[in-house]
Amino acid sequence: MKEESDETSVLDKGIFSDFKCPICDEYMSEPIFICQNGHSICENCKAKFVVCSICQASLEGGRNFALEKMANIVICPCKYEDSGCKFVGKPKAIIIHQKNCNFKKYNCPLQEYTSCRWEGMIKDQPRHVLDGHQNEARLTFKSNLQYDLRLLKSFAILIHEENVIVMRCLFDRKSTEPFYWSFQHIGLDKDGRSPYKVEIEFVDQTKSNRKLITNGSCYGMVEDYNEFKVSVIIPQFMLEPFIDANNNLTVKYDVQKY
Ligand SMILES: [Zn+2]
Ligand SMILES: [Zn+2]
Ligand SMILES: [Zn+2]
Ligand SMILES: [Zn+2]
Hints:
Keywords: Metal-binding, Transferase, Ubl conjugation pathway, Zinc, Zinc-finger. By secondary structure, the protein is α+β, with helices and mostly antiparallel strands.
């Protein structure tokens, strides 16, 4: 009995792989294209490549109508099945589901700054940052911080209980670009909204008691960590009085619930 079910799952795996594009390894649904030697290729890859990546033949082989028909019948597992996802569906439904699957693997939210190679589920990100990045700048939700503006970008990890917010900043003193801050509450589901907002107060360096306070929201999930999602943006000239002779900017920030 057990042998039989093992055999079935091997067989099924073989079938499902026929519905995966050999170039990008994603499920294919109508329209499915073929190279002149018969390799099936998804719509995205067909648009990206001129020749088949497997055999170098032209991709002008037309459509694979037989496979398209079967793709309307066959039920396949989500590609994150091994991580625990139980979703099954036709390739078209799977493609949509996988974009938002909670078992999807993401890179470390700090990979750009630390070249960390970690990959895992959204819900495991806070634990990873707490345990795996103990040597990075770690602050509480209410702190004072001095930025060295000779650096173009910096980041810090803001921690309150089990909540982890990654703060990133972009400064370019050689340009007239504004300064950008990004606060990302990590570990939230794809559509999860952070219950936190942030207040940043700039500390006057000219002793004339000027005050500048600004607000922004913390956001949740991002697809791509190279994308810089802005929470706070301030024109550089407004910050000049707050920058000292050594190019340092001192801020007080306060992350609070709405
Ligand atoms: Zn493809
Ligand atoms: Zn080919
Ligand atoms: Zn899934
Ligand atoms: Zn990491």
